[in-house]
Amino acid sequence: MGVPSTAPNLLRVARGEVVDRPPVWMMRQAGRYMKAYRDLREKYPSFRDRSEIPEVAIEVSLQPWKAFQPDGVILFSDIVTPLPGLGIEMDIAEGKGPIIYSPIRTQAQVDSLHPLEPEAALPFIKTILQALRQEVGNQSTVLGFVGAPWTLAAYAVEGKGSKTYSVIKNMAFSEPAILHQLLTKLADAIAVYVRYQIDCGAQVVQMFDSWAGQLSPQDYDTFALPYQQRVFQQVKQTHPDTPLILLVSGSAGVLERMAQSGADVVTVDWSVDMADARARLGQHVKVQGNLDPGVLFGSKSFIRERILDTVRKAGNSGHILNLGHGVLPETPEENVAFFFETAKQLNALV
After folding, report:
1. Which residues contact 19 (CB under 8 A, 6 or more apart)?
2. What b-and-e string marks burial along 47-76, b requiring 16 or more CB atoms within 10 Å of the CB?
3. Tens of pLDDT, residues 161-202
4. 32 an active-site residue?
5. Looking at residue 2, what is its pLDDT?
6. Is 280 a catalytic residue?
7. Residue 199 is a catalytic residue
8. Is 41 considered catalytic here?
9. How far is the CA of 185 from the CAs of 64, 110, 218, 234, in angstroms?
10. Which of 15, 33, 71, 155 is catalytic?
11. Integer Cα distance of 55 and 58 in angstroms
């Protein structure tokens, strides 16, 4: 299916077209480094309110769009947002992240989970995505936002974020059958959720497997990769033209495995040199990244030099410029502005 040239640049690059400069957005671009966000947070202190009340989530999603005009506008959400729709109750504590009220530890709990019905469980998603598409038109690409099965399972089993992942690894290594059933249910729910986001207006969807980098490569092959593939295969059956992006934090050791997931674009974190990532993945694999978020604390000349270095190493096609992870909360807003300004002048600079 041919893509009209009116399609926004990020969508075109994710589909394999060549454009005059790499499209640019930032993970966590809507967030605490922005004064506009901090002001809104005082009015709506609950993260769930900010991400689930449509008019608030729309405003937050659009704050960086209005300030910096990035090439990607991502749905303001959290990876655990769909969990209550499966029967896993949760909240998101400010500064601490998701809290699962009854962590999944038993076969009976896995058996009691039900399929996700996004229209009923997540009605706000449609309102938000439709509004974002209407607002940005073809000037930017609207990205959907989902968590991956392993990372959602890690939250559901641990009950909160973890430094060691000992509870879910205990399950993985002593009761793997229970974990595989949980991962299967999560993968099927996420596939439904991705399809729903696309139907509601998402033009590209990024799946965050934030904690898969905590697995050894052989365990990644058992507990992460097959379930990433399960999600992407189901989505591609019904929505073959929608590009899918995969992020894994701390992914240096599993980069080649990420390319086997079925994702159209692999996010590269800053622990890998972009030239090495390109060599390891092959030029046919599209990449996103991979500036160290800490670079944005440097001088403007330093930021510019690092952007140019990344873009040169990535080559002139199949690259979406981004950070290697989310923008940090203390980042000076003017440095974020400079990052975007520089990125948009790249066809003149490189």
Report:
1. 9, 12, 13
2. beebbbbbebbbbbbbbbbebbebbbbbbb
3. 999 999 999 999 999 999 999 999 999 999 999 999 999 999
4. yes
5. 54
6. no
7. no
8. yes
9. 34, 8, 22, 13
10. 155
11. 5
